[in-house]
Amino acid sequence: QALESLPPLRNEAAVRVLRGRMKGIQGHCNSCYMDAALFSLFSCTSVLDSMLFMPFPLCERNVQGILRDEIVNPLRRTGFVRASSVMHLREQLTDKGQCSSFTNAEKDPEEFLNLIMQQILGIEPLLKLQSGGQKEQDCYCYQIFMDKQEDLVVPDVQQLVERSFLSSDLKLVEIPSCFIIQMPRFGKEYKMFSKIIPSLELDITDLLLDSPRECCLCGDVATLECL
């Protein structure tokens, strides 16, 4: 049986299919962290489509099949995914993982991504980071941590990533195949930013470790970096 493969939505097709009422992934029982993550990863990009088709041991194919046939393909075909489909995935994750509360509790998106990418689908880490010359760290996504900064009222993603890397003395060891970024967390009582502008392109030149860069004064290859 041939597995159905629908391309991600782009440009006018994305607007036509995804805009309006009863579009997106239906929320239910604290599923928002997973709904938002799945929509971001699959609705308009194919970067992680290997997750949907890579061969895995038989015991793991339930999760892969639900992800592909009940969530990603309906999202790309009609722009809508029922809450019952996401609950089906959450039930499978509860069975496979070490945590029994995937079906009812709110989670950190990083916990969900680590479980599905590492423990269930066996994907290699997407990011290699280094902090202050320490040992490399492998991870699947990067969560922005930063203190409140008065000059940033409505920041864009580029500004947040750069300032977060700077404050944590972080560098990317290599150019990532996929750069999943989690925006600053907030609770019901406090939001660090009321809005964040998506950066449609991300310049990581200054975030790369040992990457040759231009001197801002003379234009030659820089030998020193001023934080």
What does this structure look like?
With 227 residues, this protein is mainly alpha-helical. It folds into 2 domains: 11-120, Cathepsin B, Chain A; 124-226, no CATH class. Helices cover 34% and strands 8% of the residues. The protein contains 7 helices and 7 strands. It has helices at 11-18, 32-42, 50-53, 61-78, 83-96, 109-120, 157-167, and strands at 24-25, 80-81, 127-131, 137-139, 142-143, 170-172, 181-182. Strand 3 (127-131) and strand 4 form a beta hairpin. It is globular and about 60 Å long. 19% of the residues are buried. This is CYLD hydrolase. Keywords: Cytoplasm, Hydrolase. It comes from Atrichornis clamosus.
Broad shape: globular
- CATH class type of the largest domain: Alpha Beta
Query: What distance separates the N and C termini?
Result: 56 Å
What's the CATH architecture name of the largest domain?
Answer: Alpha-Beta Complex
Number of domains: 2
What count of helical segments does DSSP give? 7
Structural class: mainly alpha
Order of helices and strands: HEHHHEHHEEEHEE
Assign the CATH topology of the largest domain.
Answer: Cathepsin B, Chain A
Strands of the largest sheet, in order across it? 4-3-6
Instruction: Provide the β-strand percentage band.
Output: 5-15%
Mean pLDDT: 89
Major pleated sheet: 3 strands, antiparallel
Low-confidence stretches: none
Residues in helices, as a percent range: 25-40%
Protein name: CYLD hydrolase
GO molecular function: cysteine-type deubiquitinase activity
Organism: Atrichornis clamosus
Keywords: Cytoplasm, Hydrolase
